[in-house]
């Protein structure tokens, strides 16, 4: 069986990483699996690209930048990603795509596969699987919906666009997608139950079949290290209680929920029984230290970590990983932390409850409730059986998200779809 995975970028962002991890898991299970991306930044020999020649690279850059520039120009100043999908390119004549038994789509925005070129895939008469890493496939342009329910109808009156109305750009994009989806038969993979439920509510794809199959993770790389030793690597006193959180571009960032984290830590620092001098906060993935807010605990900024084995040691050094995200499909950071036996405190939102089991391998706080987020951190801080929770975190990943488990679920889906093809 030959499977080709299509993604815009090579490992940039959660979708790119999830795509590559799945391909590697499939190869480990004996499947001929390849990843093809629209634009390749890195040098990973396992990833091929549609944009090899200087002309193809230049065209890809033009499409990507044009898509992003026009979307930014037409949108309000909000931290909600929006795609116009005006730009794109055809892929049906590429030999790897033509020779594949299964075409597996992932994140295909930023000038790659717009509705016109998606519909064109139907000409190949092959089973097509599409993993929804965010909500864009079934909205009129946004990738993160928050409380907007316009996608239940036909979009329009978009709260993100500067010029909004019944027949605005979001509605016109919805119409283009509807036409494309009418021509193209594909099977949806939702990495979380929340994403599958969201698809069912959508006017574009509510009648389509969707299978819930989570993303996977390299459990032999993201593994537990001895906490005291991992803390020493980060030059942290082994006796300190270490909080960890991920990339936060600014205090006002809406999607990542940074203000809730700041408020939760302020609340925690004022509580009786909390020794501020015994707690340290570690932040990784930030762009500029100058953009970071003030925290009530001693804070270490690690910057961007490019080596996964070192990232695993950072997770292992933490006693709790905190993610205040307000909407997330199946965030890699949560899975990585649990795989390293570090419990997670998060809001009850998106696909996070698929991974975090309340008061078993972490704590699920009430949505947008900073005080309850603080409760979760305090619960772990005072917990006498921390080792049991850490073991439960690791076991939950091995049981439900390991490479073997997720590869087997995808292979079963692929075989089912191939069997359904006209002979």
TrEMBL record:
Q: Which residues form the Glycosyltransferase subfamily 4-like N-terminal domain?
A: 13-219
CDD domains hit by this protein: GT4_WcaC-like
Keywords in UniProt for this one?
Transferase
Q: Record's SUPFAM superfamilies? A: UDP-Glycosyltransferase/glycogen phosphorylase
Q: Name one Pfam family in it.
A: Glyco_transf_4
InterPro entries on file: Glyco_trans_1, Glyco_trans_4-like_N
Which stretches make up the Glycosyl transferase family domain? 232-388
Stored Gene3D superfamilies: Glycogen Phosphorylase B
Taxonomically, the superkingdom here is Bacteria
Q: What GO terms are given for molecular function?
A: glycosyltransferase activity
What's the protein called, per UniProt? Answer: Glycosyl transferase family 1
The upper taxonomy is: Bacteria, Pseudomonadati, Bacteroidota, Sphingobacteriia, Sphingobacteriales
